[in-house]
Amino acid sequence: MTRTSRRQTALIALALTIAVTLVSAPAPRTDAADHRDGPVITGNQALDINDIYLFLDPNDNSKVVVAMSVYGAIVPAENAASGFFDHTVLFRFQFENTGDAAGDVNFDITFTKLSGYSAPQVATIKENGVTLFTAPTTVSSSTARTAPPPVITTDPTTGISIFAGLREDPFFFDVEQFFRVRADRRANGAAGTVGFRTLDTAVDFTKGYNVNAIVVSVPISFLANGTGATTFDVWETISLPQ
Questions:
Q1: What count of other Cβ atoms lies within 10 Å of the Cβ of residue 174?
Q2: In the Cβ-directed half-sphere of 197, how many Cα atoms lie within 13 Å?
Q3: Does residue 177 lie within any of the structural domains?
Q4: What is the pLDDT of residues 41-76, one digit of tens each?
Q5: Is residue 86, in this structure, part of any structural domain at all?
Q6: 20 to 30 A from 85, CA-CA: which of 57, 69, 114, 200?
């Protein structure tokens, strides 16, 4: 074997090793941003994860409502162009009921590809990988002066209900005063004198902006999953396929 052929063989072996390593290595985790405040959403605003909310269903206290908002700061004029869900993204609610910090009851929600601004998408709801039911989204409008009636779908088998569509951002944040308080604390520590404004004087920077929201009402017994749990940890994730 000549020196040239040995070198070529070594390079081929090295290339194969690198290829196997790249295929075998897990994908690196990437933290997303909320309300458009990070570079990760520059190429895909569907990754703009905002907030999560959890509360007892006011219409039925045997259920809890969990909601996530994504794609923040949508102005009304962009409702139709922005009020839909990326069909390549997996939206997940994770409920933990055993104290091990790992999701026990996971709801995965995906959407069909947008076919037109006047047609609803179809959401598929899965629980721990098993499809439960499908539901249409609420179609948004950039010209209507009032919000459309929310389309809420309830699965008769599980009692789970879902809404997916545009809502005004419920997050309240006085941004200007926050930065004043932060600068004061950095300069003066606990001795700072600048405080937050009261609710009647604070300026809500999210007022008038919309978000895409996924809202699910779930029976508490379903979340307990036979454990008898009455308290839960919950978090949300959004992810793209590799």
A1: 18
A2: 15
A3: no
A4: 666 677 788 899 999 999 899 999 999 999 878 899
A5: yes
A6: 57
What digits encode the pLDDT tens for the residues 109-137? Answer: 999 999 999 999 999 999 999 999 999 99
User: CA of 110: how far to CAs of 89, 97, 137, 140, 240, in Å?
Assistant: 7, 24, 11, 18, 11
Measured in whole angstroms, the distance separating CA 235 from the mean position of its chain's CA atoms is 9
Cα→Cα distances 38→35, 50, 168, 181, 205, Å: 8, 12, 21, 22, 17
Distances (CA, A) of 182 to 36, 179, 232: 20, 5, 32
Domain membership of residue 119 as a residue range: 33-171+206-239
Domain contains 122: yes
For residue 30, CA distances in Å to 68, 94, 238 come to 19, 18, 11
pTM above 0.85, yes or no: no
What's the rounded Cα separation, in Å, for the pair 142 and 83?
A: 9
Residue 39 lies in a domain: yes
Domains of the chain: total: 1
Extract long-range pairs of 96-100: CB within 8 Å, 24+ residues apart. Answer: 96/232, 96/233, 96/234, 97/223, 97/224, 97/225, 97/227, 97/229, 97/232, 98/227, 98/229
